[in-house]
Every structure is written in structure tokens, then in C-alpha cells.
Amino acid sequence: MDWNSDGTPDLVSGERHGYFNVFIRHDTLMTGFRHYKLLDSTELDVGMSSEPAVVDWNGDGMKDLLLSEEAGTIRFYDNRTSDTWPMFQDFTELKDLNGRIEEFRPSPYIFDLDRDGTQDLLIGTAEGEVLFYDNVGTNGHPMLAAPETVRTVEGIPAEPTPPAMGAARCGFGYWNSDSVPDFLIGCGAGTVELFLGALPVGVAGIQRQLDARIQVRPSTGRPPFRITAAPASWLTVYDAQGRVVRTLRSPGPGEAVSWDGRDDAGRNARPGIYFCGDKRRAARLVVTPPAR
Fold first, then answer.
1. CA–CA gap between residue 216 and residue 226 (Å, rounded)
2. Alpha carbon of 141 to those of 30, 163, 205, 284: distances in Å?
């Protein structure tokens, strides 16, 4: 990545002892800024096993830093200076709709996996899985849904071979230029494997088309949700893994049906992404945590 915005690729790295390093390229040589400093001249140190991702996380047009640490949190360092030489001081920890993100030795990667125009968070874990945190907010104000495991078309977690080697490090992009995201995954054995995207990604187990004729108000918020739809049989609420949460009566033309945020057993649904629809079409809604 181009750290100092001079048009030449540079290199950033974390390390076992928790520091963050920057290496600036000059033709065939590189200048190293090891143990990168904060604005107060102290070393940027997260403790152990740092893994960086450099991205404009808050939509202000400047590169920011996401830095993970061994215990599992991911820190967001806001760029306080410029895009030609980013500097940082304080940090906040990333959270999803259920609270604090904690994955042992996580490896963060930022990519719009579901192609909805917002940058999502992907995490390679020490166990070898890759987790997808859908950004249900905006690029200026990210809001991360609870994680889904990235899976193959057979429903098996996409992880290194053999899975026991673990320590997944992932990178997403368009390997074969077919408009479906692909990804590379590395592991502790030193191998790198390619997973080619075969289907629209983002939600495991649901292959329904999003349909504007099904309307949910609010689309993001707290229950109850008012749902209107063209004539259908029964409307069903599914979670992000495609499991049935609640079956609702069919609204007549122009009528609305309400979902109170509970499942068929009367339990409150957890914060996260849900889909409401029939066998072929659906609308997406996001249940947010209660206000504190």
C-alpha cells in the first residue's frame, strides 16, 4: 500500500511483540520506520501479535489504522495529520452489534464482500476460520453486524488445509475478473490457497433475491417492525444463517404485518441481520442493541 501517497507501493507490518512498522520504498531500496511512534512520541505498541489493516475507516478521506492484538480486540487509530504521513494517538476498539469483538490473534482485512457499497470487516482467526462482519452502517459511520463464518458452496467453513494448521491470514479481491469476490488464505504451515467465488456471497444458506416490493419499517432499529408486501403466502423471518426465526401471517395487498422481534418460541431475537420474505424473495432488516 502507498503509505506516503507518493505513487509508490510501501510496506506496513505488525510483529510478534505488538509493534507497528512502516517501510517506505525508494526505487529498489526501503527505509524502515520500526516501532512507529504516536503523536506524543511513544511507541505504538498493542502488547503482542499485532496485525494491521490500513483504510479510511471514518470516511474523512485520510488513511486510518486498524491494529489487532493477541487477546482478540481490534483497535481503530484515527489519522490526526494528513494522508501523506499518517499519525495517530488515541484509539477505540471495534465492536459489532453484540458488543466487543474478541477473536484470539485476529487478522483483519477490509473489503466490500457483499458488494453493497460499504466496506466490511473480515477476520482470519487462530482456529483457521474467516469471519465476515457486514457493515450495516455507512463508510463514514461503520456499524458491524454479528459475524458469519465464510463458507464454501457445500456449507463447509473455508479454512486452510489441513484445518489443524489454523492461523488464517486472508486477502480478498477479484482473482479471475468474473465480478464475484475471491480470496486467498494462508496458514501456519506456510501454504497459500485460493478460494474462487461461485455464488453471491454475504449470507450463508439464503439464496433469495432482495425484492423492493417487500418493505420493512424501520429497516434498521428496534422492534416492532412493520412489513408490507405484495400478496404472498406466509412471510418468514430468517436469521443471517438462513434459520427460521418467526413465521408471520400473510398481509393482504397494501396491509402491514408487525414483527415484535421475538422468535416462534417467544424469545427476543439477538441484534444482527435478518431477512423477511417467502421462498423466493426477501427484504433485509437489522435489529440493533437496546439503548443504554
1. 6
2. 35, 35, 28, 19
Digit-coded pLDDT (tens) for 131-171: 999 998 899 999 999 898 888 766 678 888 776 556 789 99
Show the cell assigned to 278: 417467502
Reduced 3-state DSSP string for the chain? CCCCCCCCCCEEECCCCCECEEEEEECCEEEEECCCECCCCCECECCCCCEEEEECCCCCCCCEEEEECCCCCEEEECCCCCCCCCCCCCEEECEECCEECCCCCCEEEEECCCCCCCCEEEEECCCCCEEEECECCCCCCCCECCCEECECCCCCECCCCCHHHCCCEEEEECCCCCCCCEEEEECCCCCEEEECCCCCCCCCCCCCEECCCCEEECCEECCCEEEECCCCCCEEEEECCCCEEEEECCCCCCCEEEECCECCCCCECCCEEEEEECCCEEEEEEECCCCC
pLDDT in tens, 199-255: 444 444 444 456 677 889 998 999 999 988 766 556 888 887 677 889 887 666 667
